[in-house]
Write a structure and sequence with these properties.
Length: 283
């Protein structure tokens, strides 16, 4: 079975449109981007376009890559104080001279639509209400849509980042899964991934997960998008972490592209609406 993201994302958007019709205001998303990194430019354009298509107010603040860290933090503080701004997202990766953790610590947790501030990350792990990290939240919604319950299952996540692995582990634990976080230093990794009834990979290396590493019948969620060249038309060839043969072993697999990616954007916009409603006393 293919765990396609677009139908699930569209279901999320339908729910959000129904919510937006009842609101006497339009939620406002502010995205901050430093520099002209092609991937960041593309991602930000996609988020901005989808926000406006949904009916949200969205603005992208673009600054030079050389912008001083304190100038960036001061801009974030102004957005924190602006009552018209409901959601703030600083596109990562930021330039090397910018401490992204300082950026996250500066963003108002009530406007943290990326779900990455220490406050929201901590609330998630404590089982409290929070704005949740978008990619893991999208994975959970994707699995629910296709009737895959983590309850009682062994889940292996090959990633330990603050963006994917750690928040996803908290969400899986909340759903009563037994969770293993694996990573580049994990010994005997194939023996661990073969235990997984649900295997999530976000390594960023094409063909890293081979069929021999997958338990027959497992559900596999491939988060990574890896560029492995260009086709004759000059377009990037995109693949995930899974080698082609994984589809023959797994019972279900997310495609790349068209799997988790659309869900990340959908959950960002869901967080924006949620943040706006909470801030304005409507949630």
């Amino acid at each position: 079975m293919e765990l396609a993201g677009p139908p699930v994302a569209e279901a999320v958007y339908a729910e959000l449109r129904a919510q937006l019709e009842k609101l006497p205001f339009v939620p406002h998303l502010r995205v901050v981007r430093l520099g002209e990194d092609p991937a960041s430019v593309s991602y930000v354009r996609l988020k901005d376009r989808q926000a406006k298509k949904l009916g949200l107010s969205s603005q992208v603040d673009v600054f030079p890559e050389s912008m001083r860290q304190e100038e960036l933090l001061e801009h974030i503080r102004r957005l924190n104080a602006d009552p018209e701004v409901d959601g703030i997202l600083v596109q990562s990766p930021t330039p090397r001279h910018v401490d992204f953790n300082r950026v996250l610590e500066t963003i108002d947790p009530d406007k943290d639509v990326d779900g990455l501030t220490p406050t929201n990350a901590g609330r998630l792990w404590m089982g409290l209400e929070a704005l949740e990290s978008c990619t893991p939240a999208g994975i959970m919604r994707l699995l629910k849509h296709y009737g895959v319950s983590p309850a009682g299952k062994e889940v292996v996540i090959v990633n330990r980042s603050n963006l994917v692995g750690k928040p996803l582990a908290a969400m899986m634990l909340r759903e009563n899964a037994t969770v293993t976080l694996a990573h580049s230093k994990t010994q005997e990794l194939p023996s661990i991934t073969r235990r997984a009834e649900i295997l999530v990979t976000a390594v960023g290396r094409a063909s890293f997960i081979t069929p021999e590493m997958v338990r027959p019948g497992a559900v596999v969620v491939d988060v990574s998008v890896n560029r492995v060249g260009q086709n004759e038309a000059g377009r990037d060839i995109l693949v995930g972490d899974c080698a082609p043969g994984v589809a023959e072993v797994a019972s279900a697999l997310t495609p790349v592209p068209g799997g988790v990616g659309p869900m990340t954007v959908a959950m960002l916009l869901a967080n924006t609406v949620k943040a706006a409603m909470r801030r304005r006393g409507k949630y």
